[in-house]
Specification:
By secondary structure, this protein is of the alpha+beta class. Helix content is about 15%, strand content about 30%. The protein has a 4-stranded antiparallel β-sheet. The longest helix has 11 residues, at about 45-55.
Amino acid sequence: SATQNIDVITFIVEDTGVGIPFEDLPRVFERFYKADRARSGGGTGLGLAIARHMVEAHGGEIWAESKEGEGSQFIFTIPIAM
């Protein structure tokens, strides 16, 4: 979803998956970091690091919120150019 404020647009991408352990949240935007090493699926651990770089390059902020067993939200803001 997306909402517009006076000076930023806020985007929220969410799921209803297994969630991310609280202790892993500060690291999910690091390059090559994978919170669940037991997953059989692929992935390089670069997606969120790239997202962070792109958002910050546009003057925005990005963060994650999660509850184990309930899912996660990835929220980012982008300033509106005036």
